Amino acid sequence: MIKSEDVYRIGIINKPHGVHGELLFTFDDDIFDRVESEYIVCLMDGIMVPFFFEEYRFRSDTTALIKLEGIDTEIQARRMTNIEVYFPKKLAEKIEDDELTWQFFIGFTIIDINKNKIGKITDVDESTINVLFVVEHDGTELLIPAQEDFITVIDRDKKIIYMNLPEGLLELGNT
């Protein structure tokens, strides 16, 4: 059984393309092309289900047409509309830190350099030029800049990011 903590979101299937089961896929992370993977994971009725690629081809920097095994008709493809797509973290761990997207770090814990636990990353806000980690801290939500300058060490095994944050940053503008 695939658990939600073992995958991270890379995109969404938008709609069918043609009549042979091909799907339009919008992605935030092209990891499925950079790491040898035969499958992606889709969230179907609350369950993580693996789907194996037959083929895919890029249409742009953020979209691809994908053909998945077992999806051979337009009717089958229509059932995949608006389905979230995930990628296994264990496969993504094979690439270097500088090749990962920020979404990979959801579920990691942030600890400052003084060994004070700040909290767990629950989401990543990439809606502005400054990417922010959304962190659960004592029942409140903190927004922490995902700046590489602030990150001192990433421990993938323990799922910890050690950061050297400017003094007072945690008190500014967090809700």
Summarize the entry for a quick read.
The chain has 175 residues and is mainly β. Helix content is 7%, strand content 46%. It has two domains: 4-96, Elongation Factor Tu (Ef-tu), domain 3; 102-171, SH3 type barrels (Roll), CATH 2.30.30.240.
Give structural notes.
With 175 residues, this protein is mainly beta. The protein has two domains: 4-96, RimM (Elongation Factor Tu (Ef-tu), domain 3), CATH 2.40.30; 102-171, SH3 type barrels (Roll). Helix content is 7%, strand content 46%. It has three helices and twelve strands. It has helices at 31-34, 74-78, 89-92, and strands spanning 7-17, 22-27, 39-44, 47-58, 63-68, 83-88, 109-112, 117-125, 132-137, 140-145, 151-155, 160-163. A six-stranded antiparallel β-barrel has the order 1-2-5-4-3-6. It has a six-stranded mixed β-sheet with strand order 10-9-8-7-12-11, with no helix packed on it. The radius of gyration is 18 Å and the shape is elongated. The two termini are 36 Å apart. The mean pLDDT is 88.
